[in-house]
Amino acid sequence: MDAPSKRVDIVPAKRRAIILEHLRANGAASIQELADAIGGSQSTARRDLEHLVEKGYLERTHGGAVLVQPTRATFEAEALVNAELRHAEKVAIGREAAKRLSPGDSVILDGSTTVMEAAKATAERGIPLTVVTNSLDIAQFCAGVNSWRVIVPGGSVRPGFKNLSGQPGEDFIKTIHADLCLCGASAVTGTLLTDNSLEVASMKRAMISAARRSILLVDSSKFTVPGFCTLCDVSDIHEVITDSAIKPDALTALKSAERKITVVSTPAET
User: How far apart, in Å, do the first and last CA atoms of the chain sit?
Assistant: First the structure.
């Protein structure tokens, strides 16, 4: 009989992120080990596993699962699950990025989950800003900060994601001249930045070009095989902020672009 659930309040996206992080740390796990990790029943763990297998994150094994490298160049982590993955690292990167903003700055924020953490950290500083974002979630958060002017450029909402792309937003972005752009990427391979969506990549390129300085916010898991389409090269970015779990060869490749690289520690390391 399944053990009674101890953490039934955890939403599915959080449970699935816990499972993925457990497998990242341990390589493979049994159903019971995953049930223990999420504090739930074996049946709940099985349902979450089936969902993650269907979406391409995992492969089932006899009695458990293993994490796999996504085989599709167009693979995208689900928005809610992605927000929970590497959360401590994203918070640390976001807090570092927030230090780059000064009172009165204009800043472009893309829809990356790490950029959301930068917005939250900046809000704690209470400085006045003009914010331009294509993320409905970030726009909603920023609208709650009284000292911020928030501009949403428009466009079409991608199915499953609360980010705008295409027209008229992209043309609008090309007319502005912001102080700073904070953006993410689906993957960093050597010095190549890629994304999984042509429309998203096009919008991000416009954002980077529309700012005097641009900073890439990527946790160490993003240093992997390329996504579907090219975004730009690291040389087109002024600074990269990542976490200390970045592999040495990935860090060496970044440094070859002769751009500022900032590596932050997570709370567990400090």
Answer: 41
Overall domain count for the chain = 2
Q: What is the mean pLDDT of residues 148-171?
A: 93
The pLDDT, as a whole number, for residue 2 is: 43
For 41, the domain range is 12-68
Residue 206 within any structural domain of the chain = yes
Would you list the DSSP string of 150-164? EE----EEPTT--BE
Q: Are residues 109 and 214 in the same domain?
A: yes
CA–CA distance from 250 to each of 92, 187, 266 (Å)?
Answer: 19, 12, 19
Residues 190 and 257 in one domain: yes
| Helix, coil or strand: residue 248 | helix
pTM value is 0.77
On whether both 232 and 161 belong to a single domain, the answer is: yes
Cα 176–110–126 angle (5° rounding)? 85
Tell me: the pLDDT tens digits for 96-106?
999 999 999 99
**Enclosing H/E stretch for 183:** strand 178-183
> Could you tell me if 228 and 124 lie in one domain?
yes
25/23 Cα distance (integer angstroms): 5
Amino acid 205 reads: R
Residues 210 and 239 both lie in one domain = yes
CA 46 vs CA 19, 38, 182, 185: distances in Å: 11, 12, 38, 31
The answer on 233 and 123 residing in a single domain is yes
Nearest residue to 113 via CA among 162, 54, 167: 162
User: Residue 145: CA atoms inside 13 Å, Cβ hemisphere, count?
Assistant: 22
The per-residue pLDDT for 9 is: 57
Do residues 80 and 17 make contact, with C-beta atoms less than 8 angstroms apart?
no
How far is 172 from 67, CA to CA, in rounded Å?
41
